[in-house]
Amino acid sequence: MIIHTTDESLFASFGRVIKGYDTSELQEALKGTRVPVTGTIYEASDEKLEKLEIAKLLSSNVYGGMPIQLGYCNGYNTKLNCLEYHRDSEINFANEDFILLLGSRKDIIDGVIDSSKVQAFLVKKNTLVEIYASTLHYAPCQSSLDQPFQVLVVLPKGTNGPKPEITVHDKEDEYLFACNKWLLAHEETSEAKNGAMIAIKNRNIDIKEDIQ
Fold first, then answer.
1. Read out DSSP for 136-203?
2. How far separated are the first and last CA of the chain, in Å rounded?
3. Distance between CA 212 and CA 182 in Å, rounded?
């Protein structure tokens, strides 16, 4: 699989690089977050991260005053597995290079997306990126086989919390998996076994052979 970078024009369809912010204290704080021995962990809200000065700036400037949560996704992963989207952008940052597998909501046809539409992007260390609300994404991937990722995840407050009780009216309602989280799963995944809609066809992308 071709692994692009956020410097390429192709990335503009999925997100943008955010510049002008001092991320030094964020780098130090991320170093102290927990990393599993295998697999991944996700913490939607981390008190230490949310007390940083940059948290206030992201809320006021990047999110226009909206309440936000700062958490992290850490660990080891090389697979696509699922794709999700939110009603607002997601901000990511890491001290080391990591890879994002990204798709576009416009490529969901009749409730299903072909995994061949997914693109891989290397996010270089100490780069702050915005992933647009129209972009499909999921857990980050490591950029090398022996290096775990530690990725900041910034989202509107409450995102990924308990799923609201709803009555299905529109087809999209069937994909609501948590608060502000619409999920498309590959049939091979634990998410599919736990009730997520199977909506990714063809192979479950694995970049293991594409990284060193």
1. EB-S-EESBTTB-EEEEEEEETTTTSPPPP----SGGGGGEEETTEEEEEETTSHHHHTT-EEEEES-
2. 13
3. 32
Length of the chain: 212
Percent helix, strand, coil in the chain, to 5, is: 20, 35, 40
Q: Which of 97, 95, 98 has its CA nearest to residue 78? A: 98
Helix (H) or strand (E) holding 5: strand 3-5
State the residue for tokens 């997520």: 196
- For the stretch 33-89, pLDDT in tens is 999 999 999 999 999 999 999 999 999 999 999 999 999 999 999 999 999 999 999
Q: What confidence score (pLDDT) does residue 212 get? A: 75
